[in-house]
Amino acid sequence: MTLKGYQPRTDIVKCEKGDRIADTHDVVGRWRNHISQLLNVHGLNDVRQTEIYTAKPLVPKPSVIEFEIGY
Questions:
Q1: What 3-state DSSP class applies to 21?
Q2: How is residue 31 annotated by DSSP?
Q3: Chain Cα centroid distance, residue 1
Q4: How far is CA 52 from the centre of its chain?
Q5: pLDDT for 5-38, tens place per residue?
Q6: CA 69 – CA 71 distance, rounded (Å)
Q7: Over the Cα atoms of the chain, what is R_g?
Q8: Contact call for residues 20 and 14 (beta carbons, < 8 A)
Q9: Is the full-model pTM beyond 0.90?
Q10: Rounded to the nearest 10 degrees, how much is the dihedral formed by the CA atoms of 39, 40, 41, 43?
Q11: Phi, psi (5° rounding) for residue 36?
């Protein structure tokens, strides 16, 4: 059952305390803080200090013999 003329609001979010925020400026600020917390590397002053790990290749590099024969 829907009420005639009713449109749900999608621009309401909860603040860090759990209260609802409807003001556009406050909603944008809350999203900014939320995304910043998700993407921020805590405990490091410089992102370049982090170690980068890469996966080992699934296919090993060809040997010299395989390379010369053309497998």
A1: strand
A2: H
A3: 37
A4: 17
A5: 777 666 888 988 999 988 888 988 898 888 888 8
A6: 6
A7: 26
A8: yes
A9: no
A10: -160
A11: -60, -40
Please tell me the total number of residues recorded for the chain in this structure.
71
Q: Which residue has the tokens 């603040």?
A: 15
CA distance 25 to 28: 5
Amino acid at 57: P
CA distance 24 to 29: 9
Burial class (CB in 10 A: 0-12, 13-18, 19+), 13: middle
**Does residue 48 surpass a pLDDT of 60?**
no
Mean pLDDT of the chain: 76
Q: With 70 as the cut, is the pLDDT of residue 47 above it?
A: no
